[in-house]
Backbone:
């Protein structure tokens, strides 16, 4: 009996295995893999069709997305692939699994492809792409625009867990119809939005709710909401937002609102008197103690009275008599003069006006002297007149004609005193009243003349027009031993005839050759010797100028 049962079981098992074998070697009818129909095909044919149909899908670059940004990933470089043989084996290979056998017997359906993942390569690809998708939080801000507090809310950053990102890519990359969404987290800003909202309602709005009255003894002034807002800023740190008021700015606004709130102390002054510099003594006075003005304004802005009380105290000048005397403006460092054409009375007026604006001007240690700034706008309203100038090599007329001689004067007293040459430009052609290569022109808004006081002493400019010459002195304390040399004129060029069709053309007889000249300056002091400087300039010839168009040949 037992032997019979065993024999029967063996027969049944053999039949089952034989049936399984019959169902192997080809894919069940109706089977598709990612839309590719391989039903009824043998293993080799199914593999070929899958390679043809799904190979491009497996090799196509895809996008990953996080926080509104996307990047492209190459599947091969990321270690992602399609295993065609394994896919076919699962659908047509020998199996004793009843469920699989039933599927093959009854007919297949959509089957998933077998995908491969090289985790090391995928992790490396994720490590490369994640920083491009992550986003730092955008910190918030609070500021006044006019008297209106304007809040910009902070925005959380985007944070990506690399492991979770790799899992999401591995699960969703193949055949994705859109970017693969990576799981993201948020990075909180350093200061939350609530802190900015609290600062806006609790600090900014009360500050500009009205003016603040400041008193000092019998004096008073009001700081308007506009002034308060202009001197307020906001600092975000430690999870909080604090309003900061500019004490110096508020103090200046206080004096502007009521000049009597300022100091009555008088600075020492260095003036020209009797033809030489003299120190006018400083004077002590009284002023408003504004050391705690910002703190008191901040406190008063949250009260109904909105009033700040300050004290008047004894004040000293910013520049005392002793400090002015220590500036050392007491000897002539350089004196320089050039002749001018006395027949041109309008040009002479410009020379006189320019000299007056410079006479007595003090240049402090480390300060840069700018001729344009010292003269102010070159306009008739500022005391200048229209006279002769040179424009593009031609004589013409413009307001301020002649001021180039003032520029030459100022350049030379600075250059010969050892000051640093910051900016200057010689004329396009040489006027023999000036030292060749050591002169400077001026054209408002385009060409300035600047030098820097590189000494520890102040210097004063003295300038005047007399006896057919423009005179300049630089008073101070002699620091530099200056030596200059000027080369012979070389690279001579002959004048030619040129034609000028401008309406204000001035005919010229010409005749003077152009040339190049080199000026060298050396400077030494008790403390140091500076490298020699070389100035090289090429002057155009004085061409014959004929007004009108150039005649045509023939």
Residues:
């Amino acid at each position: 009996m037992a032997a019979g049962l065993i024999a029967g079981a063996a027969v049944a098992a053999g039949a089952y295995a034989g049936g399984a074998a019959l169902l192997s070697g080809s894919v069940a009818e109706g089977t598709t893999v990612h839309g590719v129909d391989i039903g009824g095909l043998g293993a080799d044919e199914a593999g070929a069709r899958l390679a043809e149909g799904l190979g491009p899908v497996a090799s196509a670059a895809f996008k990953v997305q996080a926080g509104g940004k996307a990047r492209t990933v190459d599947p091969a470089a990321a270690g992602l692939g399609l295993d065609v043989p394994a896919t076919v084996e699962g659908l047509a290979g020998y199996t004793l699994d009843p469920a699989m056998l039933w599927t093959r017997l009854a007919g297949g359906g959509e089957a998933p492809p077998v995908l491969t993942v090289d985790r090391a390569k995928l992790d490396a690809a994720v490590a490369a792409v994640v920083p491009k998708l992550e986003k730092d939080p955008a910190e918030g801000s609070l500021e006044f625009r006019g008297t209106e507090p304007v809040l910009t809310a902070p925005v959380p950053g985007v944070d990506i867990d690399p492991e979770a990102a790799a899992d999401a890519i591995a699960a969703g990359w193949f055949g994705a119809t859109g970017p693969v969404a990576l799981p993201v987290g948020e990075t909180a800003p350093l200061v939350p939005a609530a802190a900015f909202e609290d600062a806006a309602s609790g600090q900014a709005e009360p500050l500009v709710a009205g003016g603040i009255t400041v008193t000092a003894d019998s004096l008073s002034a009001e700081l308007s909401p506009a002034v308060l807002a202009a001197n307020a800023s906001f600092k975000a740190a430690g999870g909080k937002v604090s309003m900061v008021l500019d004490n110096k700015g508020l103090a200046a606004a206080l004096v502007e609102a009521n000049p009597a709130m300022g100091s009555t102390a008088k600075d020492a002054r260095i003036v020209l008197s009797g033809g030489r510099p003299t120190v006018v003594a400083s004077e002590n006075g009284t002023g408003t103690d504004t050391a705690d003005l910002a703190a008191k304004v901040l406190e008063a802005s949250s009260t109904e009275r909105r009033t700040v009380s300050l004290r008047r105290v004894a004040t000293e000048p910013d520049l005392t008599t002793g400090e002015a005397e220590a500036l050392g403006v007491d000897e002539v460092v350089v004196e320089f003069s050039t002749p001018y054409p006395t027949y041109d009375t309008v040009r002479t007026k410009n020379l006189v006006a320019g000299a007056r604006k410079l006479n007595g001007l003090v240049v402090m240690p480390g300060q840069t002297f700018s001729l344009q700034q010292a003269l102010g706008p070159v306009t008739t309203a500022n005391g200048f007149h229209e006279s002769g100038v040179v424009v593009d090599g031609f004589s013409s007329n413009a307001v301020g004609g002649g001021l180039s001689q003032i520029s030459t004067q100022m350049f030379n007293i600075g250059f010969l005193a050892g000051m640093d040459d910051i900016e200057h430009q010689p004329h396009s052609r040489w006027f023999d009243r000036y030292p060749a290569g050591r002169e400077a022109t001026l054209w408002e808004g385009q060409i300035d003349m600047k030098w820097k006081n590189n000494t520890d002493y102040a210097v004063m400019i003295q300038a005047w027009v007399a006896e057919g010459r423009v005179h300049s002195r630089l008073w101070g304390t002699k620091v530099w031993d200056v030596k200059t040399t000027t080369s012979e004129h070389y690279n001579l060029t002959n004048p030619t005839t040129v034609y000028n069709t401008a309406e204000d053309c001035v005919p010229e007889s010409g005749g003077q050759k152009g040339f190049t000249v080199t000026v060298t300056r050396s400077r030494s002091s008790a403390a140091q010797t500076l490298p020699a400087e070389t100035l090289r300039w090429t002057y155009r010839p004085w061409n014959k100028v004929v007004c009108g168009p150039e005649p045509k040949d023939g």
